[in-house]
Design goal:
Length: 303
Amino acid sequence: MSVLAAERLQLGFGSRVVLDNLHLQISQGDVLSILGPNGSGKSTLLKGLSRLLPPLGGIIYLNGRDIQQQSSRLVARQLAVLPQTHQAPGDVTVRELVEYGRFPHQKWWRGPSREDDAIITLAMAQTGVAEFADRPVLTLSGGELQRAWMAMAIAQKPATLLLDEPTTYLDIAHQLEIMELVSALNREQGITVVMVLHDINHAARYSKRILVLNRGALFALGTPAEVINREMLDEVFGVDAAILSDPDGVPVFITRGLYPKAKAGGLRPSKLRHFSANNCIKRDRCRKGLIGWASDLSALAAD
């Protein structure tokens, strides 16, 4: 059964249509990354799926029911959303921020229960923020703050998590920290994840499926191996790239430049061979595979 689905979906603002006639099925346990150039409708789609933006046409289903016909509290019990930008009062501590995630489950006349306290404590432990639970959120680094917001979303106990560019403004180490956390939530708790990403290689490594938007329409939908190819990168992003496979068989792309300039320069992509380490018994230690991988990189650099 689909936890989220869209039929003939049209989204936009006023008379401006951003996405049109989109059909989508997201199953329980999926990890779906949304890719596309700026202005393609990625964040707009996430707003529609989260009920923050009413459709201009079509319908969105959350667990089989029209999401627009469900109350905000009921929706919040089923899915959590982390937008691109979020702001909390400066004097709020990390624990107080995480407590907000329990609001959809509480009665207005009482405070947190013992169950709420246990869920909050567990969410902080899972995201590694328990050690600074009493610190104001304004004192946190970028990576710490993103994990604190993630803890709030986990405390909501959602079956589905929607993330809008969760690694924006983070250095590479903190980006990987967040992506590993998202992967663990899906793997260990079965949480369905839908996220907007700009890093195509992150999408390839951490997604089960990838959806590509271009010019307000669905361009491609499938596994990373099916979607990430030179044709897509050329037509959607306008870049010329080599597509390799890392020792785990995950596609990795390396840009060679903007496509029109690359073609004018007479580059020869055919020189690159497509390496796969699927036959390695222990991929992470496959010397042959790693040598082949390094050779492909050397060939690209020397071209």
